[in-house]
Each structure stands twice: as structure tokens, then as C-alpha cells.
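Input sequence (475 aa), recorded before submission:
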Amino acid sequence: MGSASTVPNGSCQGFQQAAQQFRRRELLQLGGVSLLSSGLLNVLNARAQGAQRKARIKSCLLLFQAGGVSQLDTFDMKPDCDETIRGEFRPIDSNVPGMPICEHLPNMARQMDKVLVVRSVHHRMLCHNPAIYAALTGREVGESLAVSNKTFASREDYPHMGSVVGRLVDKPDALPPFVSLPFILRNGPAISPGQNAGFMGTAYDPYLVLRDPSSAKFKMDELELPAQMNEDRALRRKSLLQGFDAGMRRLEATASVEAVGESYRRAYALLDSNSTRSAFDLSQEDDKLRDRYGRNLVGQSALLGRRLVEAGVPFVTVYTPVAAIDEPSWDTHLNNFPRLKKDLLPPVDQALPTLLEDMHSRGLLDETLVIWAGEFGRTPLIGARRSNNSNNTTGRDHWPGCYTILMAGGGLPGGQYFGSSDRLGWYPRDNPIHIADLTATIYSAFGIDPSQVIPDTLGRPHTLSEGHAVTGLFG
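Predicted structure, C-alpha cell format:
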């Protein structure tokens, strides 16, 4: 397992000089299909000689519950509080004494021995897009009440954790290092920030699976050669491209050329690899197992995530929608309890425990970190208004002051709590974990030094994380 190196501070001048030599050129296309990325790829190599860190994990599967899960109605219940806090649901015992969970998660109750419940995550971003950005990158930027649909993704953004991992750890050549599915997060017209490589450039953006894995028509057509292009023609095109690329490297020895070459290599590796096509082929799974995961977007997306991790993809993010007409959303400003009971908790109670049991039986949890988390939680007081959204007496508003996530695998202790909320659930009582510390912990688990400096596409230095790894999470 490879690990990242710290970039010496003195290397920034070299990065800037390389950036000044930047030249434009267009990506060639294979049979009219763009090779993974388009535009300018002026990305500088952050792998410099430095101290190595030992990696705990080889992969991470992030199940991102966009919209914000109500922690008080799932894994941090307050049964002794007034009904305006505790709500309608009651706790049930799990397979771990002293670790009760919501009555509407009976299947998950039988898998709690595999889970570390972290009840003290916090940040200050009260609206979806800034909070999503904080959760995916570890950076709090801008006003906490920034209007979400005016907070747009930008190439000036800090990168998603998966992009950093894809850049700084070793990975199989035939596989994309970072995959996101089954759609791009949007809140209103705005693409939520933090989902791509940001200032690291398009070469490290995720490979996107923009379709529903539960559909009977689910297929990754882009992993097949176009019908009009036979294998000999593809090989000739590849040879021509390699020769052209070698000539360009002699003419301009810049990091941008290396990034373009990386995109070429990734594109052809995907097309050449039977193992890659197999990883995306859900039809290879036993029908009974697919049924256990649930024949829906949540279940089949989780299953596809497991297949990709098993194939060797270092980082996979599976999203649920912020707000959608066709799919349920955790953004329960209205009718919190009936929506949780009918639409939101049942697919989770099918997919998540099945995923944990499945990964455990395959030995995948030993070197894989599974995270189930959203961008924030919900207000302990039902009907309270804390964000700039409309919230009524039947719902819970956004609340980043203290919320709960689940973590499993990667050497973490299962069947335990880490941190806790105060009596009413508004703020951490002990072991608070800021979102920057959480992302730093994930980097550290991969063997990446969170304090190292990486350059953007113009050679400007950035500290990878403002947080510190929480060593206590791993016991």
C-alpha cells in the first residue's frame, strides 16, 4: 500500500516556474468520446520526497446522506426528554448492550457490533451547499447562512477527499481512483460545491456514474469501444496518441502535459480492462443478495459501491439527493416523522446492515473504512428555526452544532460510542470532532499527512487540511 509524502516548502518556486510554462492543447477523442476530462489540465505533482506514514486502510466507501439525517430519531435518541425534543419514535435494544437505536431500524440493530457511532461531529455551516462543501472537503468557507442555491462549485474550491486520495495514494492502473454515484448533488439550480477536485484540476475529478444502478437498463456503455471502432483501429489510435504525447513532452516539459498523459492512460486503461467492466456489472451478483440490499436506488448503489471497493477503487462516494421530487430526501422541514418512517428509514434498514454484513463476510472491512454521514443533523427542538429555510411545527431544521455519523471497518472498534451530545442534543458534551478533524482523520488512515502542502494549478501552495487526526477514534 503506497502512502503520500510531504511536499517541501521550498518546492513552491519550482511549481510556479512550471506553471508559467503552461501551454494549451486539446484532448484527443477516441471515437468521438472525450477521454475522461476536457479543457486544461495544468496539475502539478505533489509527490515530493518526505516522511512516509503507515496506512491503515486501502479504501473508503462514503455513503453521503445529503439533506441531513435527524440524529435524535436514529442513533442519538433522547427518550428522557420532553416530547418536543424526543419526538414520536422510541428506542429499541441492539445487539450491543447499552447501544439502543430507533425502533424503525430493526435490521440495523443486529449489526451495531460492527459500527462506531460518533455523536459529536460539528461545524457552523447552516445551509446545504456550504455544509456539503465542509463535509466533503473539511473546509468551512463563507457565511454560515449563505443561500445554498447561490453557492456554486468552482475550480477555486478545495478538493473532495476522494480526489486527494486519488492523487496521493497508489491504485490499480486499470481502475479509476475515485468514483461518485449515482448523480451529481444539486440544491436548486446550483451544483453543490466540494464534489470534484477543485483547484487540483480536472485530472483528479471523480469518475461519474450518472444513472440509477437499480434500473433494469443499468449499463456502463462508455466502458465499451464504439461499435464503429474495431480493436485494430483502437490500437492504432492509441499508438498515434502515445507518439504525439511523447513529442509534446519533449517540446514542453510541464506538469500540464503529465496531467493530460494521466488522463490518456486512465481512459485507455478503462477501455482495456475486463476487470473494470466487471466491477460495474451488477448482473454478476446473486439475485438473492441483490434482493437483500433492496432493489432500489439506495440498495443497489450501496452494492455497486461494495463491488468497486472490492475491485480496488480507493475511494467511492454514494450520494442521496439533497432534495428531489422522485426520491426521498433527509431534508425533513415538513412531516419529519412520517417521512422517516415511510420513505427514508426502510431502505437504509435494508441496505446498510446488508452492506456491513456482506463486507464483513468478504473480509473487506479489514482495510476499508465505511462512513454513513450527511452534511449536518437536525434541530433537537421540533419546529425550531435555525437556518434561512421555512420550517414548520412538524419538521426539524438544519443543525450543524452537533450531529451523528456512523463509521465501520479500517480497524475501528465496533459496538461503541465516540463522543456524546449534551442532555438536549444541541452541542457536544465530550470528545467534540470538528469536520476538519474528521477529514484529517480519514487522510491519516490512508497514510496521507493532513498537514502537507499541495499546489493548485497555478502553483500556489495550500495546506491539505486545517484539522488534526483524531487518534482516539481508532482506539
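Checked by second reader. The chain has a mean pLDDT of 83.
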